[in-house]
Write a structure and sequence with these properties.
31% helix; 5-stranded parallel beta sheet; alpha/beta; 7-stranded mixed beta sheet; disordered C terminus
Length: 370
Amino acid sequence: MQLSDLKNLKIAVVGAGYGGAAAAKALSLLGARVDVYEQASRVREVGAGIGLRPATMNRFREWGIFDAIADVTSPSDYFEILTATGDPIMKETWPADGEQVHTHLIHRGDFIDALMGVLPEGMVHLGHKLESVEDKGEGAVLTFAGGATTEADLVVGADGIKSVVRHHLFSQKPPVFSGEHAYRTVISTDAAHGMVVDDNLRMYIGRGTKVYLLPLRHRGQVSFDITALNPDGTWAPQVTKEDLLKTVEGFDERLVAITRDLDMDTVNIRAVYDIDPVDTWHTDSVVLVGDAAHSMLHHQGQGANSAIEDGGALADALKQAGSLKEALALYQATRKPVTDELQRISRQGWTEEEISDVFPGQKPAAAGQE
């Protein structure tokens, strides 16, 4: 689209999570007028750590915000997968993107704070709970709780796995329970029983349980995550310390000791859900990004990275295409094959026998791009 057309474009982003904030930053750099509408009264992220891949960090460099993100991260050289008792299964460097070779490990809260910090003042409007979206063809109308409305040339649905935008316009299928729970917390490095000696991610697997140790050296902390089989699909289930200890029976005694020492009040407990692939992500004036478009299980560590890449790809498409309609089609054609594959691979079980089948999904040659 022509620069003058982009500058006249009014864009409403629904949701101020990773995908919404990234899309807002990328789209605002085109010169468009961007407003972000978030239902919460303040933006925050709970849970623990994530890894920002080399391609994601290069997006931040492109947007001029690399240092703002990198300053609250620990750069990692590789990740390692081990058996429950610590025998190595595989060790790989992160898939490089140009000269960028490190995955940057970051706390979810620090990440969203950094993203919010690089958005222009007044762009984010809190306390706006979306109730409906109406596609008018040449634009769309958003209606919020309390009756407030806004119109935009383009609405970006970045409102997560329970997306109102997706439900109204694209798919009414509910999220899908994985049969797993995720238990996430952050502990001090000193509380890691000597298991964290560098800045590299390690995952221990056995009997349907995966234990992740993700260093956050810049904080003097470690993200400690357990993903375990559990039939209770309650979104925020009740789980005891004894339940957690059962998930790590037979694991390295140091992992058991970390679990035994946990303060349960600090543990974020969630049933793990994703969604089935959505056939179409856009109308003429509404488009989905991030979890709203392709929520995936966290086994690939690609949820946040995919959301960031969506924002970049959407901005790229708007610059390259001749019209808004063509841009949205180009964006979907670019991103959907990648995320469809990541959703598929992430649903695999990651037993020791499956590692060789699942792991190639981490690599650009198999996944299309990171």
